[in-house]
Amino acid sequence: EEFISDAIEATKRGGSLIEQLLTYGRRAKLAPSLINLNDTMSAADRLVRRLFPSNIEIKTIPNGTLWKSHVDAALLETAILNILNNARDSMPQGGEISMETRNVQINQDFIDPHREDIEPGRYVMISISDTGHGMDKRLVSKVFEPFFTTKSLSEGSGLGLSMVMGFIHQSKGAIRVTSEPGLGTTFRMYFPVEPVDTSPMSTLHVARQTLDQEKKVLIVDDDSGVRSVLARQLKDEKIKVFEAETGDGAFEAMDSGLHPDLLLTDIVMPGALQGPELVQKARAMLPDLRVLFISGYPVEMTHHAAGIAPTDKQLIKPVSQDKLVAAVMDLLIED
User: Fold this and answer.
1) Cα–Cα dist 258/265, whole Å
2) How crowded is residue 175: how many other Cβ atoms within 10 Å of its Cβ?
3) Which of its termini does the chain have fewer beta carbons within 10 Å around, N or C?
4) In this structure, what are the phi and psi dihedrals at residue 14, rounded to the nearest 5 degrees?
5) Distance in angstroms between the alpha carbons of the first and the last residue of the chain
6) Per-10-residue mean pLDDT, the chain, length 335
7) What is the rounded CA–CA span in Å between residue 235 and residue 243?
8) Strands 290-295, 313-316: pairing kind
9) Mind spelling out the 3-state secondary structure of 59-109?
């Protein structure tokens, strides 16, 4: 059970990494969700304990009553790992890293000296401190500049911390760094607090109760493994699922009498009919057909945008079961 749990976590991290690379390379939008920063800090802690040398001690101090924040969890973990890697590199002979979360109240006096574009109010903070060689004021002033690095070309690009700052500013937060030569460095990241949903049942839970169990979904994907996983996840919700390997096969099934309520289709597939073309032909027969596009690459959404209607939903692989089910429920439940 422990090995399976570790494998699942590693798979999630791999999926997150791919998602991050695609997000950065194609400048896709952030995917924020309401999270507890303790969870992300713990995930990063588990990972680096396996990778960092034994002469580096890692301590975590989670706040037991931490407020939640609306943050892209995958990119937050990347930011934490980036800072942790820099901390490790600053302690070649070993040392200590401390991570801590805290609730803070930010006022105008905190904002004005740095001329930051953030609002006063409640924030959650995660701080990462090390006992490394530290930096002088000149280095501290340059640490977030793109391509600035004290490492050799083979060890770093100088983009890591500038990307961290960009992500945090896009999340309407702030980042501060303090350092003293010979004493170490501390990074503090601040994210605004979002109100917690206090409704007795989540939207997804209500949707599951409301869904008509007679609804039919046709899944179209040329990857049998992906298709099988998607089908199993929807069958867990008692949804009737049909499968097709290609757009041509899906249209043939619909032309022969299969009338799905929802078409869940990949965008680029073998055969004459790609996802958007399949949807156009299917809607000629079934005008009320709901559509959920799923793809591994955001660029495909852009290239085939002409065939995608404003009411259609889009997901980028890899997709968690909750995200998939939420999108399907939203499309299937009548307004």
Assistant:
1) 15
2) 21
3) C
4) -65, -45
5) 42
6) 84 69 51 89 89 91 91 89 90 92 86 75 93 88 71 53 82 90 92 62 47 79 90 86 94 93 92 91 92 74 59 80 85 70
7) 12
8) parallel
9) EEECCCCCCCEEECHHHHHHHHHHHHHHHHHCCCCCEEEEEEEEEEEECHH
